[in-house]
Design goal:
With 115 residues, the protein is of the alpha/beta class. It has five helices and seven strands; from the N terminus they run E-H-E-H-E-E-E-H-E-H-E-H. The strands form two sheets. A five-stranded parallel sheet has the order 2-1-3-6-7, with helices on both faces. It has a two-stranded antiparallel ribbon with strand order 4-5.
């Protein structure tokens, strides 16, 4: 599942991952991501931290409470200071990638986590 408020990024990732053979779902808000995560078996979340209705980490918290956590979560952020990495890892993210995320690195991380 791609949780990202930019339709340009979401659409590009959906094409990329679809061509790589992955089933892709997307959400642009915390609320939509929680709803989708509760009704769909999600293996991995690409999670933007800054969403229009809250923090991407709110998605993980809600899915954890409902028992619907994915196998892995990759956080994506443009913010690198202030303990962001540590906060994401403590919240359950497997890795924190800094935007713009190099596509090869992103695919490598996904294959590592799902492989």
């Amino acid at each position: 599942m791609i949780v990202e408020d930019s339709s340009l990024v979401t659409d590009a990732f959906a094409v990329l991952f679809g061509e790589a053979g992955y089933e892709v779902h997307s959400a642009r808000t915390v609320a939509d991501a929680i709803e989708l995560g509760k009704r769909t078996q999600i293996d991995l979340i690409l999670l933007d931290l800054t969403l229009p209705d809250g923090s991407g980490l709110d998605v993980l918290s809600a899915l954890r409470q409902s028992g619907q956590l994915p196998r892995a979560t990759l956080a994506m952020t443009g913010h690198t200071g202030g303990g962001v990495r540590e906060t994401c890892l403590a919240a359950g993210c497997a890795e924190v990638l800094t935007k713009p995320v190099p596509i090869r690195e992103l695919l490598r991380q996904i294959e590592r986590l799902l492989g």
